[in-house]
Automatic annotation (TrEMBL):
Residues 569-995 form the Gamma tubulin complex component C-terminal domain. This is Spindle pole body component. GO terms for cellular component: gamma-tubulin complex; microtubule; spindle pole; spindle pole body. Its main location: cytoplasm. The keyword Cytoplasm applies. GO terms for biological process: cytoplasmic microtubule organization; meiotic cell cycle; microtubule nucleation; mitotic cell cycle; spindle assembly. Signal peptide: none annotated. The lineage of its organism: Eukaryota, Fungi, Dikarya, Basidiomycota, Agaricomycotina. Keywords: Cytoplasm, Cytoskeleton, Microtubule. Belongs to the TUBGCP family. It holds the Pfam family GCP_N_terminal.
């Protein structure tokens, strides 16, 4: 080949931009340069080569051209270290270093192809590497164009897609993130949420480098956080404008603290220029979950729309709502930041409620008044102490984390405190400060310290930074170092004005809201609950343990106070038994003599002792003769029926006047009480209290005070149908006007309430009726056997009278024996023996505790006050209010045994009719002896009374037997002629009341051989046979 061929080739410096039409040169496939006579380092030498970089346009969808992407970065040649010919590189200061790869990574080719190969050593290899093959390595606009081309979208005429640089979109979203409007999204006060601004309402906003879904999620997260913050702020403002109680104020303060802390965290996570949106997504994830949980609790979540559902306003209901929310998040294992925020709200919001409950049961000093001015004035002392303790009354309702037992204990403890303050204002429990308080704790060691009484009551500890932490240290942690050590102080000037307060925890005066308590709580909040309390309900029981300790203290104090003199509650109950229930034979005998008489003599004119003496001696003065002559003025000279009641005491009232009253009756009844009390005092006893232990009678102090605490009174006449019964001396209810009044001392009055006294009064009135009927029944025996013979013209009537009297006397004596032995005796004796047993065990436990306690333990109140008072078998001993509740139940059983309860109205009417028949029988015999009735009239009335008596006895025995058989209740009601309501009542009580109230014993006493049952069957059978053989 000749050299002429090469003359036509282009020059060596030919480029593709040359206007020459000559062909491009063809080079060799490879080239090996001549090595210099020195140590070679091909990699270092290749980095010095630089060639122009070509860019190639990219068409999208055939008609959209992407602009040429400018080169990013600077020329790496200027930043390359100079080679010193030894294979090492030097920096500008001439110092050697081996950081060549770090410097190479910062070059322009770091933004392109980062792959380093030996093929790059070729001189023809383009040193300005092109972009990688992955779309994610391309420029964001290239990636967006590829997405637009590859991923199909639903296009609508009114919607356009608007691409923004991530930095620009982030700058806009940061404004919405803190709850303010931006140029893209503005706040809608109607829906209380962010919406697109009007110019961008029809645009779909997408960030370069992100898909539409990712952009939407990023925007949604920022708008969601801003919406939650804005709604919480509005919620706090709305709630503060209303009248709030202490619990709600504490909650609002805690909520503001949490919101302020979250705002500071948002500002600490404020992005810098090179922040990636996906990185912020992770930073804001915890904040979003916390804010979402708070807004959902406040009923202002993103899914809610105005008007929002209000929170419960009552303290107990609100705490129950908060506790349920906290328990739900603990059970669902929500993130720690969510559980800690809600736990902080529960801890701080419960404080005022806990303080109120503690004050109501005496944890802390209760400001009692000076009681010296009320000495001797029980009413004044009661009013003063009640007024002082009203401010510390227990709440009407309790949150759900209070168990039923704890609610009952707290209520009883509050009552115990008031009773203790009234009984003994100087008691140590009213003046000593309990060192154990209720407070939510979340660590095992704190729980242990609270149980041992060593818990620190200072509350949450303030946030304290380590001693080595300074303001610059915090700045250095939040902002990367870009200064040499000697210039590190200038890094504060790179921050925005005021941002240093967000990254530095300073004194409370530099912050509107002190967030240090919450930050300290958050820093130590555990990942799980204490092992000893694995659930929130167990933790609540442990937190409320101090309430149980204080309740036990008050219970023990009241037991010691009321089971021993001078109050001696058993003595007061024994006194009521002796008088109201006629347990004292002496009182019963004197009361019978004052109110009743077995004599069927005439009713004297006048009242009082003289009238009774004249009647008993048979002495009649002119007034008595004139009164009898007036009665005998009837037709055919037959005297009219007597106008006074049978069996009533002579001289109780004026002739023809009822109910009685006046000084004479009051004096007679007063003497009954005083004489009975005099017999109760033992002059030979060493002390008044010793008599109570020796004979089981009330102690001397109670007996002495009973003289002016116990007395009779006359009640006002009723206005209903019972008024006629009271005004009729012949009625069985003629003495219901008499009222036995008892005024217990001030502390005991809290236990023996008016409701209990009313039950005693009902039983007392019933017993008075029985005494009167028994008096008449006993008087019938003397009237029939003594004096002139009766029914001389009708002998068969005399036999009927004797048999009738025998049945009536058997009924009355059986009923009285059953009432005193079974209905009253068995129930009351069991209750009394239980009180004695409680008193014995309590005194024994107290003495044993005192003997084991050292002086230091007694002073620290660890044995005598804080010790839980339990039985030997582990069952807690009933407190004083449980004793009184049992007392009320015992009285209910006695009322049931006496057939005086409301649901026993059907049976009580039968008993009342039988007692009325006995009284009418006595009146019949008395009128017959006085000549007010003829033998024929008396015989006719006697047969009618006897028939009614037998029919009522048949019904009564049938009632008692039918209590166990529901199938007989309908026929029973037909016999009683009562309503369907009585049928429902008896059906509800069938099968149980008979065994509970002892009516089976009454049936066994009334009809031991089932004579009444057999007689009723015989008569029914005879009546059927008679009807069968009767002519048609």
């Amino acid at each position: 080949m000749s050299n002429d061929i090469f003359t036509t080739l282009p020059p060596i410096d030919y480029t593709h931009t040359s206007k020459s039409n000559l062909l491009e040169p063809i080079h060799a496939a490879f080239f090996v340069p001549k090595l210099e006579n020195r140590p070679q380092n091909p990699i270092i030498d290749s980095l010095g080569l630089n060639s122009s970089r070509n860019t190639y346009p990219l068409s999208v969808n055939g008609h959209v051209a992407v602009k040429q992407i400018p080169a990013i970065g600077t020329d790496p040649i200027s930043k390359l270290p100079k080679s010193n010919g030894t294979g090492l590189v030097t920096n500008e200061e001439g110092k050697g270093g081996e950081n060549i790869w770090l410097i190479a990574a910062s070059g322009s080719d770091a933004q392109g192809n980062k792959l380093k190969t030996w093929d790059g050593l070729r001189s023809t290899y383009p040193k300005d590497a092109t972009e990688g093959d992955l779309l994610s390595e391309q420029h964001p606009s290239v990636f967006a164009g590829a997405q637009e081309f590859v991923i199909p979208h639903v296009r609508t005429p009114n919607m356009t897609r608007w691409y923004l640089q991530p930095a620009e979109l982030l700058e806009v979203l940061m404004t919405n993130l803190i709850g303010h409007s931006s140029r893209l999204y503005e706040w809608d006060s109607v829906t209380e949420s962010f919406r697109k601004a009007a110019p961008h309402a029809s645009q779909i906003i997408i960030a370069y480098g992100f898909s539409e879904d990712m952009s939407r999620d990023i925007i949604r997260q920022h708008l969601g956080i801003g919406t939650c913050l804005r709604r919480l702020d509005d919620f706090i403002l709305r709630l503060r404008s209303t009248t709030l109680h202490s619990t709600m104020l504490a909650f609002l303060h805690s909520l503001e603290t949490i919101v302020a802390t979250l705002r500071k965290q948002l500002q600490r996570h404020k992005p810098v220029s090179n922040t990636v949106l996906s990185q912020l997504w992770l930073h804001y994830a915890d904040l979003e979950t916390t804010l979402t949980a708070l807004t959902e609790f406040c009923n202002v979540g993103e899914s809610s729309v105005p008007p929002y559902k209000p929170l419960p306003t009552e303290a107990a209901a609100f705490l129950s709502h908060l506790y349920a929310c906290v328990e739900l998040h603990f059970q669902s294992h929500s993130p720690r930041n969510v559980r800690s925020a809600l736990a902080y709200l529960l801890s701080t919001s419960s404080g005022p409620f806990f303080r109120k409950v503690e004050q109501s049961i005496g944890i802390g000093k209760a400001p009692l008044p000076d009681t010296t001015q009320f000495e001797g004035n029980e009413d004044g002392l009661l009013n003063a102490n009640a007024h002082a303790l009203n401010a510390f009354s227990p709440p009407e309702s309790y949150p759900d984390f209070f168990s039923d037992e704890q609610k009952a204990q707290t209520s009883v403890a509050a009552r115990s405190l008031k009773v203790l303050a009234a009984a003994e204002p100087s008691h140590p429990l009213l003046n000593e400060y309990a060192d154990r308080r209720c407070q939510w704790v979340w660590h095992e060691d704190e729980l242990e310290r609270m149980f041992t009484g060593q818990y620190d009551e200072r509350g949450f500890q303030e946030l304290r930074l380590p001693a080595s932490s300074s303001q610059l240290d915090v700045l250095a942690r939040d902002h990367p170092a870009r200064y040499p050590p000697e210039l590190a102080s200038f890094k504060a000037f790179d921050m925005e004005p005021g941002s240093q307060w967000d990254a530095t925890r300073t004194s409370a005066t530099s912050l509107p809201i002190d967030t240090r308590p919450y930050q300290a709580f958050l820093a130590v909040f555990p990942e799980h609950l204490p092992l000893s309390t694995p659930t929130l309900s167990h933790l609540a029981n442990a937190v409320l343990h101090p309430l149980q300790l204080q309740s036990n203290r008050l219970t023990n104090a009241l037991l010691s106070l009321f089971l021993s003199p001078p109050l001696s509650l058993p003595s007061h109950l024994s006194l009521l038994h002796s008088f109201a229930l006629l347990g004292s034979q002496s009182f019963t005998y004197r009361l019978r003599g004052a109110l009743f008489t077995e004599s069927d003599g005439y009713q004297p004119v006048g009242r009082g002792t003289r009238a009774r003496t004249r009647a008993k001696l048979g002495i009649k003065d002119a007034r008595d003769v004139a009164a009898e002559a007036e009665e005998i003025g009837g037709p055919e000279g037959v005297a009219s029926a007597a106008k006074w009641g049978i069996g009533l005491g002579l001289g109780l009232s004026e002739r023809g006047v009822w109910p009685p009253g006046g000084a004479e009756l009051g004096f007679a009844l007063r003497r009954v009480i005083v004489d009975t009390l005099d017999e109760m005092v033992d002059p030979d006893a060493e002390s008044d209290e010793s008599l109570f232990h020796k004979k089981g009678l009330p102690c001397g102090t109670v007996v002495k005070e009973a003289e002016w605490r116990l007395g009779f009174a006359i009640r006002d006449l009723p206005v209903d149908e019972g008024r006629e019964e009271w005004l009729n001396p012949s009625s069985v209810a003629a003495l219901d006007f008499l009222y036995l009044d008892y005024k217990p001392p001030l502390p005991v009055a809290a236990l023996i309430t008016p409701e209990i006294l009313s039950k005693y009064q009902r039983i007392f009135n019933f017993l008075l009726r029985l005494l009167r009927v028994e008096t008449v029944s006993r008087g019938l025996f003397n009237s029939i056997l003594k004096g002139p013979p009766l029914f001389t013209q009708t002998p068969h009537a005399l036999g009927l009278l004797r048999r009738f009297r025998f049945h009536a006397h058997g009924f009355v004596s059986t009923l009285i024996t059953y009432i005193f032995d079974t209905a009253i005796g068995i129930h009351l004796e069991g209750f009394t023996s239980r009180i004695k047993d409680i008193a014995t065990r309590h005194n024994s436990r107290t003495s044993q505790s005192s003997s084991r306690a050292t002086d230091e333990e007694v002073n620290q109140d660890k044995i005598s006050l804080a010790q839980v008072f339990v039985d030997d078998d582990g069952i807690p001993v009933a407190d004083i209010f449980e004793i009184m509740t049992d007392h009320s139940l015992v009285l209910d059983k006695i009322l049931g045994g006496c057939v005086l309860r409301t649901q026993q109205r059907a049976i009580s009417e039968v008993l009342e009719d039988l007692m009325t028949i006995v009284l009418r029988l006595g009146s019949l015999v008395r009128d017959l002896k006085r000549g007010a009735l003829t033998d024929d009239d008396a015989s006719s009335q006697l047969e009618k009374l006897h028939y009614n008596f037998e029919r009522k006895m048949f019904t009564l025995t049938k009632v008692l037997r039918a209590m166990d058989d529901k199938s007989e209740l309908r026929s029973l009601l037909s016999a009683l002629a009562t309503s369907d309501r009585d049928y429902e009542v008896l059906s509800r009580n069938a099968g149980g009341p008979k065994r509970e109230i002892g009516l089976s014993d009454l049936l066994a006493r009334l009809d031991p051989g089932e004579w009444w049952k057999l007689e009723m069957e015989r008569r029914v059978k005879a009546k059927r046979e008679k009807q069968t053989h009767a002519p048609a």
